[in-house]
Batch of 4 targets.
Target 1
Amino acid sequence: MVFPFFKKINTPALCRWLLVLTALAGAGVRVAVYLQNRSFFLDEANLARNIAERSLGDLTQPLHYEQFAPLVFLWETGSLSEGTILPLWV
């Protein structure tokens, strides 16, 4: 048995409205985060903290703060920021 309510729904129009609402909600969230003017997001800050607190050899161990990154990337970033005047955000 099909309920009479479902016969009246225009499915393509409903899908379009849901798509538009989802896109607007996503854009609103992105604008809100942009207006907060944060230089690092939480994941990037935790990864930077791991790189700053560890030596190149220690970067082969599991990272703290539930972070994962490729070893070559960690070594490259760690070697650029260790012992140089370059800031950590290189």
Target 2
Amino acid sequence: MKSIAPIIFMLMICTAPAVAGEPWSKGEISLEATFLTLQYIDYKQTLFIAANDEYTENCIFLGKHPSEKQVNIYFLTTALVICSAF
């Protein structure tokens, strides 16, 4: 639980401004949908890499052979941070 506490704290700080923002435009919604679709594809690829030792990951934050838990936390965090930026 200790390792997840900093992530939850960061998400609370990053998403707080999103509550007070203006409604998203259609263009912003399209951009976000595109980003999340591409991120989902990358997520599934990275999970495949995590399950197969013959492949390596190039993301400096995850390392060459991330665990499934590391992959899940990384992609959840990046999705929430990017969504809160709008």
Target 3
Amino acid sequence: MEAISRQKKELDMKIATCKIKRTQITGFLTELKKHDHPLTEFDPMVWQAMINRARVDNDCTITFIFRDGTEVKTKIKNGVRSYKKPSEEPPSDEQKQDADDSVSE
């Protein structure tokens, strides 16, 4: 009797997982159907429907974790710049020029 009870719990878990996936897929398809053609620019609603989170690693790779658990890893071409917390003082003219130069690269 205990084995049957355990099997029932496992099946209930699988059913619940399938229902969650169905809801996610239905939401994604609903969002895609709003577009008459393939996407040519970023759409935050499609992103939200597909991606659970993204992780940037020290080796300049980014891993996209999709809502279904799939992971896709890709290398960031130009690497990652170090981030310095902005100071309370306004930036100097030299800092502004450095920032402008880095944006135009």
Target 4
Amino acid sequence: MGNQYVGIDNTRLWVYCGPYMDKFNIYNTVMERLRNRNVTQRVLAQRTGVPFSTLVKITQGSIKHPSVHTIQRLYDFFDREVA
């Protein structure tokens, strides 16, 4: 992705990349992939280090603003799975 950095904007995690610094919303991508995942929440928890109970709460909407670290772990997992 070239030159990139991660930032927070209104409690959402963004990646700015490329010479034009396009915004890419990691939070929305993670939420979409959680809804359409090909792996169980238990396996996802084991592979990402995010507690199972936290994944369930995020998926159910009980946690509306997960931590940046949690979203980053999930994004990294999904990014590796697609690559």
